[in-house]
Amino acid sequence: MKILVTVKEVATVEDEFEIEGTEIADQYLGADLNEWDDYAVEEAVQLQEAGVADEVVTVTIGPEDCEQTIRQALAKGADRAVRVWDDSLEGVDLLDVNAKTEILSAVVEEEDPDLILTGVQAGDDSFGATGVSLAEEVGYQWGAVVNHLEHEFDGDVASVRRELEGGVEELTDIELPAALTIQTGINEPRYASLRGIRQAQRKELDVKNLADLDVDESAVDSDLELTDMYEPESESDVTVWEGSADDTAAELGELLRDKGVAP
Amino acid sequence: MEFGLSEEQQQIREEVQRFAENEIVPVAEEYDTEEKYPHDVIDKAAEMGLTGSYIPIDYGGAGYSILDTAIITEELFSYDPGIALSIVSTSFGCEAIMNFGTEDQKERFLEPVAMGEKISGAAISEPDTGSDVSSVSTRAEKDGDEWVINGNKMWITNGTVGDFFVVLCKTNPDAQGRYNGFSQIVVESDRDGFSAEKITGKLGIRASDTAELVFDDVRVPEENLVGTKDAAFMQQMQFFDETRTAVAAQGVGIAKGATRAALEYAQDREQFGQSISEFQAIQHKLAEMATDTEAARNLTYKAAWNVDQGNDITKLASMAKEYASRIAVDVADEAVQIHGGAGYVNDFPVERLYRDAKITQIYEGTSEIQKNVIAREMLGKGF
Ligand SMILES: Cc1cc2nc3c(=O)[nH]c(=O)nc-3n(C[C@H](O)[C@H](O)[C@H](O)COP(=O)(O)OP(=O)(O)OC[C@H]3O[C@@H](n4cnc5c(N)ncnc54)[C@H](O)[C@@H]3O)c2cc1C
Predict the structure, then answer these.
(1) Chain B residues close to A198, C-beta within 8 Å
(2) CB–CB of B7 and A201 under 8 A?
(3) Cross-chain residue pair B18–A191, CB shorter than 8 Å
(4) B165 lines ligand 1 (CB under 6 A)
(5) Closest Cα in chain A, distance from residue B163 (Å)
(6) Architecture (CATH level 2) of domain B234-379
(7) Mean pLDDT, range A43-67, rounded to an integer
(8) Mutating which of B5, B6, B8 best tests the A interface, going by the most A Cβ atoms within 10 A?
(9) What is the per-residue pLDDT for B25?
(10) What is the pLDDT of residue B383?
(11) Could you give the 3-state DSSP secondary structure of residue B165?
């Protein structure tokens, strides 16, 4: 089985920051591998260690700067990486789901994986749609918000557990080829080992532009426009009950349920 | 001349930071207060390959250079020196086996250390032997095909948790010259007659295990002798460049951590209606701390780079060790000062760094000894 994992370098923001126009000012930004992707990579590497997968390939859309972040996945055990970048992507502020879908589906066609693992969402722009949209485009089955994947595959069927709202979970069998969007907590991502980091430097990292993938430049045009960015005023609200725990616990429980904190 | 780190080295730094923030920071205060050895953290560090990172790949290590190792040491020490020392010291003594050991010794001793299955130690100091290493009195006598060892070793890192120790012993009391007649012998802690007593009440690095070792007619096979009989002193000397550079990296790390903590606190704390970081007195402290740390780092990296090139750098290594350890103590002191009263209790990490910093001026040759070495080299006096 071949697994393709989509990975992304995301912007991380310091606790205190300032907004300039529609962007967070540069000096407050850092970069890291998207948290959800870290879990997706771990899941893929575990499947490889379990002898289920023969090859784990990562794919990202990003400039050369992000290679160091992408190598993290190689250091943790992915076999090779594909990075897509193009001059036409250079000036794009917002790469929307459609554009990502088109670019990634071209890579899926080339790689022809049995299983695609993506993060549920990216920590920075949080569209939360790329995985499913990609599956739809390439005609794969999909499972969203997967928080458990059976490592014993029954033929061409993946047994997954999905997280629904309100603490409800669902068990589903999904026929391969399929795309699963991976939720945090599905596993415990490892640290890249020192040996892994060393080996990662020698692993293949293939760079492709849109022409290489037969994707038209118009794919990157977006219908979406970012119009504003601001910090919402945060309000804090306190409820105090007078009386003994016996009398007030039920009220607290009711409130927590109301607010959606407790099921 | 090249001053930049490679992409791989940057990646190592980042992954070690991630490890330290998640696995060390949350438990650092607990291990310090309780003065207990961080077995759990060591296990996780071993999985990542942080134990024995310089051990060659053929023996299960990562085969990292002295500069790579210095970067790892600096990062770990910037978060918590006690746990950091526990991690980097798991392979103490192994450098002798790596450079002078037989193939069989390398397989027996290096591999399990690299895999995180065993912990080693280097036993040189004794109750009456500190700076003057030539006064070692622990005796190893040959009996058939065994060495019989008697004596006491003092201040031994990993003493009660170690699986084996590379012990500096006197093997030929009749040897001419004060540096002759010593050998390095591996003693496993499960040998009869070996005992270790933990030393408690340390000022700092309290997570690290320190003990007195007692050898009472301990018998080990003759093949446990490392390198050449009676030539241990010369062997030991070869690692000073490496081990002193490593302690210099510890100092850089402590200074880095103290600066980071002070910078954060200075921006948060308000007095006289403004952040204390607005006061020039505080700004100048921060500027000096950062500059001193950078200077110490450059000296340390230069020493590490030279060791990796195979150059002999007795003077440079001593300079790096002496300077970086002094900077560690100074910077930690200023960091506490910037914290005011809050720096005097263990709510913030600077109180611990302040206590931890001092050891870097003592072990691996005191600051006075380093200056002796530097001056001796300058004056062309040999050793
Ligand atoms: C926490 C800890 C861990 C340690 N780990 C180890 C270990 O793993 N293995 C090991 O073998 N040892 C270890 N040591 C021992 C350490 O290396 C010695 O403490 C150190 O070498 C100093 O020796 P000493 O304590 O006997 O001091 P002394 O040599 O008695 O020195 C006392 C003072 O006299 C000064 N002095 C001595 N000689 C001279 C001179 N010629 N010129 C000027 N000044 C001089 C010293 O600089 C110092 O200020 C450890 C010590 C500690 C505290």
Answers:
(1) 8, 62-64
(2) yes
(3) yes
(4) no
(5) 24
(6) Up-down Bundle (1.20)
(7) 96
(8) B8
(9) 98
(10) 59
(11) strand
B14 counts as catalytic: no
Inter-helix orientation angle B240-268/B66-79, to 10°: 40
Res B317 pLDDT > 80: yes
The rounded Å distance from CA B367 to ligand 1 centre is: 10
In this predicted structure, the answer to whether residue A262 has a pLDDT above a threshold of 80 is no
What span, in angstroms and rounded, lies between the C-alpha atoms of B139 and B230?
A: 12
State if residue B210 touches ligand 1 by the CB under 6 angstroms criterion.
yes
CA distance B85 to A12: 31
Mean pLDDT of B129-153: 96
**What angle in degrees, to the nearest 10, is found between the helix axes of B314-339 and B240-268?**
20
**Cis amide prior to B173 (ω within 30 degrees):** no
pTM: 0.91
Long-range contacts of A9-18 (CB under 8 A, 24+ apart): A9/A33, A9/A34, A9/A60, A9/A62, A9/A65, A9/A66, A9/A69, A9/A70, A10/A34, A10/A35, A10/A122, A10/A123, A10/A124, A11/A124, A12/A123, A12/A124
pLDDT tens-digit map of B351-371: 999 999 999 999 999 999 999
H or E stretch at B141: strand B139-143
Which amino acid appears at position A118 of this protein?
T
Tens digit of pLDDT for each residue in A110-157?
A: 999 999 999 999 999 899 999 999 999 999 999 999 999 999 888 899
Hey, how many other C-beta atoms are within 10 angstroms of the C-beta on B99? Answer: 13
SS3 B313: coil
CA B29 to centroid of ligand 1, rounded, Å:
27
B49 vs A190: CB contact, 8 Å cut-off?
A: no
Query: Does the domain formed by B7-115 have CATH 1.10.540.10?
Result: yes
Q: What is the spatial distance between Cα B74 and Cα B55, in angstroms, rounded to a whole number?
A: 18
pLDDT above 90 as % of chain A: 75
At residue B7, does pLDDT exceed 70?
A: yes
Asked if B107 and B68 count as a contact pair (C-beta separation under 8 A), the reply is no
In the block, which residue shows the tokens 């992707």? A37
Count of residues in chain B: 383
Domain ranges of chain B: 7-115, 120-230, 234-379
Phi/psi region, residue B202 (left: phi>0; alpha: psi -120 to 50; beta: rest), is beta
Q: Is there an atom of ligand 1 within 6 Å of B124 CB?
A: yes
Contact check, Cβ <8 Å, B48/A75 = no
Domains in chain A: ranges and CATH = 2-220 (3.40.50.620)
Interface test with B, best of A194, A198, A201 (most B CBs within 10 A): A194
Nearest CA in chain B to A201: B8
User: What whole-number distance in Å separates Cα of residue B6 and Cα of residue B64?
Assistant: 13
How far is the C-alpha of A162 from the C-alpha of A173, rounded, in Å? 11
Residue B53, chain A, CB below 8 Å: the answer is: yes
For residue B184, the SS3 value is strand
Calpha distance A114→A44 (Å, rounded): 12
Q: What fold is seen in the domain B120-230?
A: Butyryl-CoA Dehydrogenase, subunit A; domain 2 (2.40.110)
